[in-house]
Each structure stands twice: as C-alpha cells, then as structure tokens.
Amino acid sequence: MNRTNDTDNTVEQRVAAFYDALAPDYDAMTGFQKRFVHERPFFRLLVDRYGIKEAIDAGSGSGFHSLLLANLGVQVTAIDVSPEMIRLLEGHAKEMGLTVRAIESSFLSLPSVVHEKYDALFCMGNSLAHVLTRSELSDTLRSFARVLKPGGILFLQNLNYDRILAHRESIQSVKESNGVTYVRYYEYKAETIRFNILKLKKENTDIRHELNTVDLRPIVEHELLELLTGTGFGDVRTFGGIAMEEFQPQTSKDLVVLATRGA
User: Fold this and answer.
1) Which of 39, 73, 202, 263 is buried most deeply by CB count within 10 Å?
2) Cα–Cα distance for residue pair 20/61, rounded to 1 Å
3) Which architecture does CATH list for 11-161+218-261?
C-alpha cells in the first residue's frame, strides 16, 4: 500500500506528491478522452463570447482543459504544481499536435513565472480546494487577478461544498476502468476534508490496493463570492456546472463561478 507522505514540508509539496502518485491512473480516473465531445461546446461558447485569445489553465492536471482550449485556437499557458502532471500534459499535446506552454508552479507564484496579461484564467477540477486557509485563498485570487487584463475573465469550477457539507457523505464515487476500481471517499475534519483515493486491482486471488490522500478545504459559495469581490473581481456570477445552469446549493454537483477582473 502506498500513501501520500504526510511529512512533506509544505502544502505545495504534499499536493505535488499526491498528483505525482496518481499520474499513471489519472486519465483513466477522469475519463480524459470521453470528455472532449461533452465539454467542447461550452468552452467554444466562452471563447467566442469573451474573445479569448490567450488563457491560463491554473491547476491543469494532465492537460484536458489546456488541450481543449488550444484546439479552439487559444494560446494556452498551463500551470501545475506536479511535475508528473506537466509531463503527461506535454505528452498529450505532442500526440495531438497542439502547442501548450507548460510551467511547474504554485498558484501564489503565478505572477512571478508569467509576465504577460491574459484574456482569461481557468481553474478547473476543484483545484482551488487545495488552498487550505482563507488568507491563502484571498492571496490566490489576487494572484489570479494580477495576471489578467482589465476586463479579463476568471472561470472557476469547484465541487459544491454547500451540498457536500450538508450531507457529509463518505463515499463520493466508485469508478471501474480496465479492471481497476477507484474509490474516492472523504474523512471530515474540523476545518478541512481528507480526500482519499483507493485503487483496487485483482491479481489472481489477491486484491492489490493503493491509497493516496490529500487535505482539501471546502470552499462554500458565500465565502468565495465575498473574497472575489474583495480581490479585484466584479460581475460575479454562479452556476451549477459548465453548462451554465442555475446554481442550487442543495443539489448542484458543482459550483462554477464566472467573474471579471476590474480595471
């Protein structure tokens, strides 16, 4: 059994170790190939409506949204703290014949590693929940604002923690792929949630198992909206998913936020 090392010195190192460990299974767990057809129309709408020519994908993972945007003609800079995720992204880009600039960086270091101003910043896949304090979340949003042009858009996709905290369910999902079962489950703590991914694989009469864990901070709607308005963003709107349906705190799977950087 493997378990993400809890003795790493920083949150950034723990997050990087978590995703480095998941890298061999990440695309299978997230349905990498199948999502392109489903999500492309929604991102085409955003790109066209807001005239997005250059964008950052912050917390890019193995590059799904970076590649989707690049395929739509956007010049993309992908940012991730995990070197193994950056390696996967670069491999996918080469296979697909797409150009994506990839940089290993934390959210807070973003303004020091990119010096251009962008039309949009995307932070997808619940990446923002890895920021474990309110003050660091505020600093992260300021970091995002600093790399956007005035009028540039911020597009965030988090899980809907209003719903999750109301129900406090342990098992979040069970997925099977190529003979491997992935169980995602939560352990609720005072201020954070321990996120576990248990990998089960049957070999002859034995079942091999591997556990990777990381802490998340559940960001609820009212806190995120409050911090956005205090860190340089306006025209903040919330949705229940990337299809821009109405956000329902008790039932929506996701909390999606679209905001505009002020002048």
Assistant:
1) 39
2) 10
3) 3-Layer(aba) Sandwich (3.40)
In this predicted model, what pLDDT tens digit does every residue of 22-67 receive, in sequence order?
999 998 888 777 788 889 999 999 999 999 999 999 999 999 999 9
Predicted model pTM: 0.93
- The type of residue at 120 is A
pLDDT digits (tens, 9 = 90+) for 98-149: 999 999 999 999 999 999 999 999 999 999 999 999 999 999 999 999 999 9
How far, in Å, CA of 229 to CA of 197, rounded?
Answer: 34
How far apart CA 63 and CA 113 sit, in angstroms, is 18
The CATH T-level fold of domain 164-216 is: N-terminal domain of TfIIb (2.20.25)
Q: What is the secondary structure of 141-206 as a DSSP string?
A: HHHHHHTEEEEEEEEEEEE-HHHHHHH--SEEEEEEETTEEEEEEEEE-SS-EEEEEEEEEEETTE
* Residue whose entry in the numeric block shows the structure tokens 């992908």: 78
What does the block give as tokens for 157?
């996709």
